[in-house]
Amino acid sequence: MILSSVVERVLPDAGEAPLPLVRDKVLQAARDFCDNGNAWVIKGVKIRIWQNVTGYRIPLPDHSELVRVLHQGAGNFVNISPQEVTSDGIIFSALPPRDGEINLDIVVRPISLDAQIDALDSRAIECGTLFYLKRMNGSSWANMGLAEYYRRELESETTKAKQTSWCGNQGGSIKVKSRRFI
């Protein structure tokens, strides 16, 4: 689903907030959700590395930018530090030791309302948008009670997204199997 569709869904609850402000807060909420919850993960990105080249662009979805490398493949012969990650790729601080291929899971975030997002993430983005709008003191649409409600909902969705990004679709708590003593 396109991120701009979230704007239409939050407008009824946004009160008298101006449309440009609502659009800005939708984008802010989506970016923050992706940053804090690792919500938009692209798994299995393969990059061909050459020994004498330090800069590489990573193919990203339209209207998105790279946030971080979440996981590096076990067979990678180079380690990527957070300082080597740019908004569209990687710039190694030292030349790679040899040619080869690396495998990465990366986190991206939207840079515009034209980005395609997972429909499951729309609830978190809606809550984040309404949290940002409702906490604006002095505005006619402010409501601290609702802001707190939306903040808690956003935190819950962010925690779920982060667990999923680290544990895969199984996410959640570790299952413990009790054993019988003989």
Task: Describe the overall structure.
The chain has about 180 residues and is α+β, with helices and mostly antiparallel strands. Helix content is about 35%, strand content about 20%. The protein is built from 4 helices and 5 strands. The protein has helices spanning about 5-10, 20-35, 120-135, 145-165; strands at about 40-50, 55, 65-70, 90, 100-110. The strands form 2 sheets. Strands 1-5-3 form a 3-stranded antiparallel sheet. Helix 2 (about 20-35) crosses helix 3 and helix 3 runs antiparallel to helix 4. The N and C termini lie far apart (about 55 Å). The relative contact order is 0.22. Mean pLDDT is about 90; it is low at about 170-180.
Order of adjacent strands in the largest pleated sheet: 1-5-3
Q: Compute the number of strand runs.
A: 5
Which structural category fits the helices and strands?
alpha+beta
Q: Please indicate the percent range of residues in DSSP E strands (runs of 2 or more).
A: 15-25%
Stretches where pLDDT is under 50 for at least 5 consecutive residues are 169-179
The separation of the N and C termini measures: 55 Å
Instruction: Tell me about the largest β-sheet.
Output: 3 strands, antiparallel
Radius of gyration, whole Å: 20 Å
